[in-house]
Write a structure and sequence with these properties.
Elements: E1 9-10, E2 16-19, E3 37-42, E4 52-57, H1 66-75, H2 77-89, E5 100-104, E6 112-117, H3 126-147, E7 151-154, H4 166-178, E8 186-191, H5 194-210
Parallel strand pairs: 3-8, 4-6, 4-7, 7-8
Antiparallel strand pairs: 1-2, 2-3, 5-6
Helix pairs in contact: 3-4, 4-5
C-alpha cells in the first residue's frame, strides 16, 4: 500500500518508490500533475507491462547490443520496419543524441517503444554530455505525453556499452525526472542486476535527502 506523504518506501517486491513531487523543485507546468511515481526495480525491461518502454538506442535506429538488441529481438520485425521508415523519412542521418522518437512495440507487452540515443561517457566533456543524458529522459517523457502514455519504463541510459559511470548515471536520471513537467503517472527505472539496484537505491535516496 502506498503512503500519501512524499517519503521513500521500499516495497516487498524490492522496488524503490518515491513521489515525484518530492523531486520537483518548483510548481508543475500548467496542465500537468505532480503525482508521478518513480520506481527503481531490478528486472527485464522487455517484460515491463507499461504503455511505453524506452530503448537505449544507437543513432542508426537499426538495432545493436544490450537493451537495444534485446528490444529488437523480443519485439520482432515490426519495430525494425518502423525504424527503417523513420530513417528513410525523418532521420536520414540517424537520430541525434538526446533526442527521442516512438515506434510500435511489436510483440512486447508495451504499446510503444520510445527510442533515445544517449551520449558516450567522456570525462573531458562531462558537463555537456550530462546535459545530453538528461535530455534523453526529458525528451522521452515529452514523446510519451504526445502518445498519451501514462506509464513508462526506462533503462539506465548510457550506463552499459557507452561507459557512463553507474552512480552518476543514476544521479542524471533522477535529476532529469524530478525536473520534468509531464502527464506520465509512473516512470520505472529498470536495473538489470541486483548490485546495480542496490547502488541506485542508495544514490537516489541521497539525492532525495539533498532536496529536503
Amino acid at each position: 500500500m502506498e503512503r500519501e506523504d512524499p517519503v521513500v518506501e521500499t516495497h516487498r517486491a524490492g522496488t524503490y518508490c518515491t513521489l515525484l513531487s518530492k523531486f520537483n523543485l518548483g510548481a508543475p507546468a500548467a496542465g500537468h500533475d505532480c503525482g508521478v511515481r518513480v520506481e527503481l526495480l531490478q528486472g527485464d525491461i522487455t517484460a515491463q507491462a507499461v504503455d511505453a518502454i524506452v530503448n537505449a538506442a544507437n543513432s542508426s535506429l537499426l538495432g545493436g547490443g544490450g537493451v537495444d538488441g534485446a528490444i529488437h529481438r523480443k519485439g520482432g520485425p515490426a519495430i525494425l520496419e518502423e525504424c527503417r521508415a523513420l530513417r528513410a523519412d525523418r532521420y536520414p542521418d540517424g537520430l541525434a543524441e538526446g533526442e527521442a522518437v516512438a515506434t510500435t512495440a511489436g510483440n512486447l507487452p508495451a504499446r510503444w517503444v520510445i527510442h533515445t540515443v544517449g551520449p558516450i561517457w567522456d570525462p573531458r566533456e562531462a558537463e555537456a554530455r550530462a546535459a545530453t543524458l538528461r535530455s534523453c529522459y526529458a525528451r522521452s517523457l515529452e514523446v510519451a505525453d504526445e502518445l498519451g502514455a501514462t506509464t513508462v519504463a526506462f533503462p539506465l541510459i548510457s550506463s552499459g556499452a557507452f561507459g557512463w559511470p553507474l552512480e552518476d548515471a543514476v544521479v542524471q536520471a533522477v535529476n532529469a525526472l524530478k525536473g520534468a513537467a509531464t502527464a506520465v503517472d509512473e516512470a520505472r527505472l529498470v536495473l538489470f542486476a541486483e548490485k546495480a539496484l542496490a547502488l541506485a537505491e542508495r544514490v537516489a535516496a541521497e539525492e532525495e535527502e539533498e532536496d529536503t
